[in-house]
């Protein structure tokens, strides 16, 4: 069966096993140069790639430096949290927009960090050596986790932020080193009605007319950061049919997932998520109706949930598509046959697909059984803190190898950091999360179920959630620290209502957890997934891009329309579209646009579509031409690209970008932000 991963010499076996489409989210140390040159006649140099990498940033999603003074361009929706936080009672910057004409007026964004990828190191050999081939899968998984933590800890001594990144389901590991900027300030944002024109109704559709941009600035030692690597903003934009690239941090894809994994998502996970998010969104809407302040508080959460719902429904639609699933079935069958027919691969890996099929069948059976105290019923940050505290008291006193995995030393640090985090908790929003989960508990088990009666204590979900959240003290980090330090005695003596509830269900939850892990250990499943990743990598090698991991990737494509849709919309078209929709929200352009209409060139391209392979996390990605100039900033995709989570469809899938010409036109003609436009085009003095 499977041994330690040895891929030297295996790459020559079947690099052509699968027909590799012109797709992919490519790590910067594995860009398919020859493929790009063969198809487009352009080959990026290493210097070109390095400059783009060092000009790109991760800030939750994506962005890029666009001046030597630390100026960053991203999407309005990426910077939404900071824009809301910067607002005052007198001035709602989501509604009015924001522009700092000088550095003194720029507003610091609390908690926002920007990371720039400095270099990438292959650490596969170190990780593989740590996982003893003779060890049980659980032990191997723990060994991998420990060595990854050690590598990150050692790396951080350099002063850089470090992150280990598994690729190909753990067949390959990389160490990413980042330079981090913790002082980031808001410079410019248009009105939300400009950035999100068309609202949720037009989300994931084209044509679009959104100026979805925002500018921030990174600071070092109280001064604007000097960023020698930045992207020049093109004044001529992109042309139809031209080759473009995007550098960003796509969140997750599942293109290398097995058929049984995809069927499980389709049949179990996504239907449950759709139901849960729909219920949560409705609760938030009801909360927002209580006052304008509450409406403002939850507006971004409602938007986020609605956006997630659209995305998940798009993923689900892809998995319900017979042609897509037939393609995935054919790919997997071909790969499995290749491994089975090769004695070397067969001896190395056996049939991990068959093993995973069995594991997922067990998971489906478990899902049909009762499993609520551990995974459903008590949601929210405060309830989660209570669960961790109750369990930590018992687990942390045990020998390390006898603890539940999440309480072992290698995994505990992150949970401990979260427990002692001093960031504030919005109890009103936490109450909504708890109402939602308690409501789900009642829906699934019924009001007379013993567990439900125990948790609700004779009250409705809304009444019980309010009682628990109003009276808990776990929002105070000092209280959490005391309970953590006090161990089992402190937990037993606690009168905090959330601690009491968690104590009352912990034994049942532990029994459930034991049943879950009894089906097949988490380490065993990890071992199976790693085996599939290794077998796939041994067959296809680097010819297929790895699934996305929220780390920097490069994608390429051409500016191209789809169906009857041309690749560009125009600024003049925005006025026509608003008129067509009778200028009613969400199709009402802001007053700034209306006043500037006579100055705006109606022919300036506003949004464009391309065959770039993007997904969530790519928001804010710089779109560049072959000269490395910024010609746009990615902000959305059409519905066909949502299925790209599993299979990329070049014919129908399109990424959407704000054209660089619209950015400059808007800054100068609509917002009178000439100084900012000058900084983008290199005509401004250094920011002090």
UniProtKB/TrEMBL annotation:
<feature type="signal peptide">
    <location>
        <begin position="1"/>
        <end position="21"/>
    </location>
</feature>
<keyword id="KW-0031">Aminopeptidase</keyword>
<dbReference type="InterPro" id="IPR019500">
    <property type="entry name" value="Pep_S46"/>
</dbReference>
<dbReference type="GO" id="GO:0008239">
    <property type="term" value="F:dipeptidyl-peptidase activity"/>
</dbReference>
<keyword id="KW-0378">Hydrolase</keyword>
<keyword id="KW-0732">Signal</keyword>
<keyword id="KW-0720">Serine protease</keyword>
<dbReference type="GO" id="GO:0043171">
    <property type="term" value="P:peptide catabolic process"/>
</dbReference>
<comment type="similarity">
    <text>Belongs to the peptidase S46 family.</text>
</comment>
<dbReference type="InterPro" id="IPR043504">
    <property type="entry name" value="Peptidase_S1_PA_chymotrypsin"/>
</dbReference>
<dbReference type="GO" id="GO:0006508">
    <property type="term" value="P:proteolysis"/>
</dbReference>
<dbReference type="Pfam" id="PF10459">
    <property type="entry name" value="Peptidase_S46"/>
</dbReference>
<dbReference type="GO" id="GO:0070009">
    <property type="term" value="F:serine-type aminopeptidase activity"/>
</dbReference>
<protein>
    <recommendedName>
        <fullName>Dipeptidyl-peptidase</fullName>
        <ecNumber>3.4.14.-</ecNumber>
    </recommendedName>
</protein>
<keyword id="KW-0645">Protease</keyword>
<comment type="function">
    <text>Catalyzes the removal of dipeptides from the N-terminus of oligopeptides.</text>
</comment>
<dbReference type="InterPro" id="IPR009003">
    <property type="entry name" value="Peptidase_S1_PA"/>
</dbReference>
């Amino acid at each position: 069966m499977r041994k330690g991963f040895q891929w030297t010499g295996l790459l020559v076996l079947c690099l052509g096993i699968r027909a590799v489409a012109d797709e992919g989210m490519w790590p910067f140390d594995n860009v398919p140069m020859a493929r790009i040159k063969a198809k487009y006649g352009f080959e990026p140099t290493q210097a070109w790639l390095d400059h783009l990498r060092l000009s790109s940033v991760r800030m939750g999603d994506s962005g890029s430096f666009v001046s030597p003074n630390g100026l960053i361009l991203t999407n309005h929706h990426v910077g939404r949290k900071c824009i809301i936080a910067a607002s005052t009672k007198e001035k709602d910057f989501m509604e009015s927009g924001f522009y700092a004409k000088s550095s003194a007026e720029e507003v610091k964004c609390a908690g926002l960090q920007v990371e720039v990828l400095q270099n990438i190191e292959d650490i596969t050999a170190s990780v593989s050596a740590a996982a003893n081939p003779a060890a049980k899968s659980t032990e191997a998984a723990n060994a991998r986790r420990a060595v990854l933590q050690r590598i990150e800890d050692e790396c951080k001594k350099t002063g850089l932020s470090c992150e280990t990144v598994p690729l190909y389901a753990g067949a390959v590991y990389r160490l990413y080193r980042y330079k981090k900027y913790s002082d980031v300030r808001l410079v410019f944002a248009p009105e939300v009605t400009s950035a999100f024109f068309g609202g949720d109704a037009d989300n994931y559709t084209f044509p679009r007319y959104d100026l979805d941009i925002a500018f921030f600035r990174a600071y070092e030692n109280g001064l604007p950061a000097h960023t020698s690597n930045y992207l020049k903003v093109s004044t001529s934009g992109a042309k139809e049919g031209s080759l473009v690239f995007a550098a960003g941090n796509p969140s997750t894809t599942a293109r290398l997932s097995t058929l049984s994994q995809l069927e499980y998502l389709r049949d179990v996970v996504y239907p449950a998520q759709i139901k849960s998010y729909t219920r949560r969104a409705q609760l938030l809407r009801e909360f927002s109706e209580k006052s304008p302040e509450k409406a403002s508080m939850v507006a971004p959460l409602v938007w986020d949930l609605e956006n997630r719902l659209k995305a998940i429904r798009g993923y689900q639609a892809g998995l319900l598509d017979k042609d897509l699933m037939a393609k995935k079935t054919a790919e997997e069958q071909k790969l499995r046959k290749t491994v089975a027919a090769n004695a070397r691969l067969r001896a190395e890996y056996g049939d991990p697909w068959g093993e995973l099929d069995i594991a997922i069948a067990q998971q489906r059976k478990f899902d049909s059984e009762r499993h609520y105290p551990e995974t459903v019923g008590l949601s929210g940050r405060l309830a989660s803190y209570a669960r961790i505290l109750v369990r930590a008291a018992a687990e942390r006193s045990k020998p390390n190898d006898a603890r539940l995995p999440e309480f072992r030393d290698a995994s505990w640090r992150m949970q401990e950091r979260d427990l002692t985090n001093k960031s504030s908790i919005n109890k009103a929003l936490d109450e909504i999360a708890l109402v939602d989960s308690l409501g789900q508990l009642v829906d699934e088990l019924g009001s007379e179920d013993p567990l439900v009666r125990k948790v609700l204590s004779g009250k409705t979900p809304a009444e019980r959630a309010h009682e628990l959240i109003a009276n808990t003290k776990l929002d105070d980090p000092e209280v959490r620290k005391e309970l953590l330090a006090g161990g089992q005695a402190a937990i037993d003596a606690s009168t905090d209502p959330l601690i009491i509830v968690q104590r009352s269900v912990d034994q049942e939850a532990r029994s459930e957890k034991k049943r879950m892990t009894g089906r097949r250990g988490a380490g065993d499943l990890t071992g199976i997934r790693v085996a599939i990743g290794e077998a796939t990598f041994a067959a296809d090698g680097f010819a297929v891009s790895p699934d996305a991991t929220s780390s920097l990737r490069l994608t390429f494509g051409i500016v191209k329309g789809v169906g009857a849709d041309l690749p560009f919309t125009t600024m003049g078209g925005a006025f026509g579209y608003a008129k067509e929709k009778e200028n009613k929200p969400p199709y009402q352009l802001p007053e700034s646009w209306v006043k500037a209409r006579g100055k705006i060139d109606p022919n300036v391209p506003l949004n464009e579509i391309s065959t770039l392979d993007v997904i969530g996390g790519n928001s804010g990605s710089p779109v560049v031409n072959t000269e490395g100039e910024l010609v746009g900033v990615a902000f959305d995709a059409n519905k066909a690209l949502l299925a790209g989570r599993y299979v990329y469809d070049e014919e129908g899938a399109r990424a959407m970008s704000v054209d660089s010409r619209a950015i400059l036109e808007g800054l100068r003609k609509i917002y009178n932000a000439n100084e900012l436009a000058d900084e983008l085009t290199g005509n401004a003095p250094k920011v002090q």
